[in-house]
Write a structure and sequence with these properties.
This protein is mostly helical and 201 residues long. Helix content is 70%, strand content 0%. Helix 4 crosses helix 6. The chain is elongated and about 55 Å long. The relative contact order is 0.11.
């Protein structure tokens, strides 16, 4: 039986209540981290740097975000939500209303653009701890979306094929192709779209 689009993971977990001072601290921390990462690069910034720039104690920072990987996940959250919303209710082919093959290709291009635009931040969010990439809510959403499109096309073992596709879109792999091999982004996107379409067969 084919899955329905209603099975896609929910974008968020509802409204999270937080004290006004905690909300201010969170926003200050994220703004400070974004400034520091932009100025010094992700690798050149420590958690101590972020705490000092935000004017909060290190304990507050670690309790809220855990580590730099947690900061990266939080900074990427809005961009990922915007992409998810386009996938759920935006115009085709990324959104509903296009054939599965077209939607899968559109997802690959849109997700690759997101990764390329924030490559070091996505890499940190995916590699800060072993298996971090696989534990985020965003990854669960991408995986379910790809699985749904693959199943709609009657592909064998859509879960495994979705995992294979997303492994090729991991930031570490994308960074290798773009920075080490100096591949052109548009050429890479076309090749990855072709690889994605081959998984439908």
């Amino acid at each position: 039986m084919r899955p329905s689009s209603a099975e896609l993971p929910v974008l968020g977990s509802g409204v999270i209540r937080e004290r006004a001072d905690a909300a201010r601290n969170r926003l200050r921390i994220l703004a400070a981290a974004e400034r520091l990462f932009r100025t010094h690069g992700v690798a050149g910034v420590t958690m101590d740097d972020v705490a000092a720039q935000a004017g909060v104690g290190k304990g507050t920072l670690y309790r809220r975000f855990g580590d730099k990987g947690g900061l990266a996940v939080a900074l990427l959250d809005q961009r990922e939500r915007e992409l998810q919303q386009r996938m759920l209710s935006g115009p085709p082919p990324l959104g509903p209303g296009a054939p599965a093959a077209d939607r899968l290709g559109a997802f690959v291009r849109a997700y690759l653009d997101l990764v390329e635009a924030q490559l070091d931040l996505v890499l940190l969010s995916e590699t800060s701890t072993p298996g971090a990439r696989l534990r985020t809510g965003a990854h669960a959403f991408w995986r379910q979306h790809c699985r749904y499109l693959l199943a709609e096309s009657d592909a064998t073992d859509p879960e495994l094929r979705a995992d294979v596709l997303l492994a090729g879109l991991a930031a570490e792999q994308v960074r290798y192709w773009l920075r080490d091999e100096q591949r052109d982004l548009d050429v890479l996107a076309r090749a990855l779209c072709a690889a994605a379409l081959s998984l439908l067969r």
